[in-house]
Amino acid sequence: MAARRALKAVLVDLSGTLHIEDSAVPGAQEALRRLRNSPVAIKFVTNTTKECKKTLLERLRRLEFDITEDEIFTSLTAARNLLEQKHVRPLLLVDNSALPDFEGIDTNNPNAVVIGLAPEHFNYQTMNKAFRLLLDGAPLIAIHKARYYKRKDGLALGPGPFVTGLEYATDTKATVVGKPEKTFFLEALRSMGCTPEETIMIGDDCRDDVGGAQNAGMRGILVKTGKYRAGDEDKISPAPHLTCDSFTYAVDHILQNLL
Amino acid sequence: MATWAVGARGLRGLLLDVSGVLYDSGGEEGLGSAIAGSVQAVRRIKQSGLKLRFCTNETQATRAKFVQKLQQLGFDVSEKEVIAPAPAACRILQERGLRPYLLVHDALAPEFDSVDKSNPNCVVLGDAANNFSYENLNKAFQVLIGLETPILFSLGKGRYYKETDGLKLDVGVYMKALEYACDIEAEVVGKPSKAFFLSALADMDVEPHEALMIGDDIVNDVGGAQQCGIGALLVRTGKFRPCDEQHPEVKADGYVTNLAEAVDILLEQLQR
Prior knowledge:
The complex is a heterodimer. Helices cover about 35% and strands about 20% of the residues of chain A. By secondary structure, chain A is an alpha/beta fold. Chain A folds into two domains: about 10-45 and about 180-260, Rossmann fold (3-Layer(aba) Sandwich); about 90-175, 3-Layer(aba) Sandwich (Rossmann fold), CATH 3.40.50. A six-stranded parallel beta sheet of chain A has the order 5-4-1-12-13-14. In chain A, helix 1 packs parallel to helix 8. By secondary structure, chain B is of the alpha/beta class. Chain B is about 35% helix and about 20% strand. Chain B has helices at about 40-50, 65-70, 85-95, 135-145, 170-180, 195-205, 220-225, 260-270, and strands at about 15, 25, 35, 50-55, 80-85, 100-105, 120-125, 150-155, 160-165, 165-170, 185-190, 210-215, 230-235, 255. The two termini of chain B are about 15 Å apart. The interface between A and B is medium-sized, with 28 and 30 residues. Chain B: It is found in: Cytoplasm; Nucleus. Chain B: InterPro entries: HAD-like_sf, HAD-SF_hydro_IIA, HAD_sf, LHPP/HDHD2. Chain B: Keywords: Cytoplasm, Hydrolase, Magnesium, Metal-binding, Nucleus. Chain B: Belongs to the HAD-like hydrolase superfamily. Chain B: Pfam families: Hydrolase_6, Hydrolase_like.
């Protein structure tokens, strides 16, 4: 294998990696501080579509993470960029709290469908409405296709299953804008002036975080917090660069071996 | 004359799809409406001496209620002539000692009255319509993801069907959703599964080459029957859309305006 260039950037997942709902992963704030003292650029990349950037930031600050808004790159931002490029009016199946990130987008008489994590919209009537728009040729834009996510009461269905169902119903493919799409990872790097080979991604979702990043030419570290289930690291090939207990261990590995 | 009709002379048994062939479901009273000419067509098939089974993926009502509804619409049909997924699923559950979490239409639930549903070790998915809520799908998901070997039965795998107020998503969409969520493959009970068509033929004591399937679903009715060596016609009623005649994988043996036209042509051939 070709020699790796020195590490210049670290992409960090939020939900499941730094925090689980309103609790920080133990030690994560301290580990982030140590990472900031090293010569790497950091960006926080997330498929957490229920919340706009502002809300995400407020929570992270409440949990005492040292993060600024321009360091966060979300799949909602990526979706909005795509809607603007295509000049379409979306039926927005996203959580109400995500709507601020779509402010100013015309949603009258929709001719596109955007799906995020929106349990309140995943009912029979709304799914039928989305289906009929798709049959009329509306494009299907998925913020991401995660299979499930972790809630306090256990695992819960993500948007991926609903996107897959609509794809099957209409024999079409959704345009996915979030992780694990290659374009998402590359877009996140754009303002950082680094190449994928100089970047490592840390996350709790083996396919979407680690597999996606590695597919884009980065290295990936899988942490055993959040949605991680035993054996997840065997689900992708090539395997993760590293699988470790938590964000703290991931930072230790970077500081000791990759700089 | 249509080329498919030439083979009709050796015909002994007919399989008819119900929704979209005999009637369109939905409407205010939920009764739906008979498709023009279909009531008479069923009567004429019976008078001709051909054997007949109704091969349906209907899972919004018990077989008994479903038959009652068809009778109310004027159809000459009895319960023993209807091959439906729920009774077939009950047999499979009992044979394999499985206890289901049911995600089905309220009106179908009585079909599973005699089945042990405590501490579920599989999921049975039907066309649950309004019961396809996030909460219910999530419960099904949690049962499956908690099992060492998740078992998902899907009563049919249709994409959508037509009701009087428009196209509606069918069970297959939610089957795909759960398959994707759990990274598994469902066992389909109902069309287009081979076992389902063959059980209908066995019930009539008819061989595949002596039978003909008539339906409005190019993949599940026509494609499913053809996989068993049964000829199949597509009607241009129900969920039919013109692009179905250019389907990339499935070509029907014939295309007809409706059931009445199919029966006209068939009976003319049989009387020669």
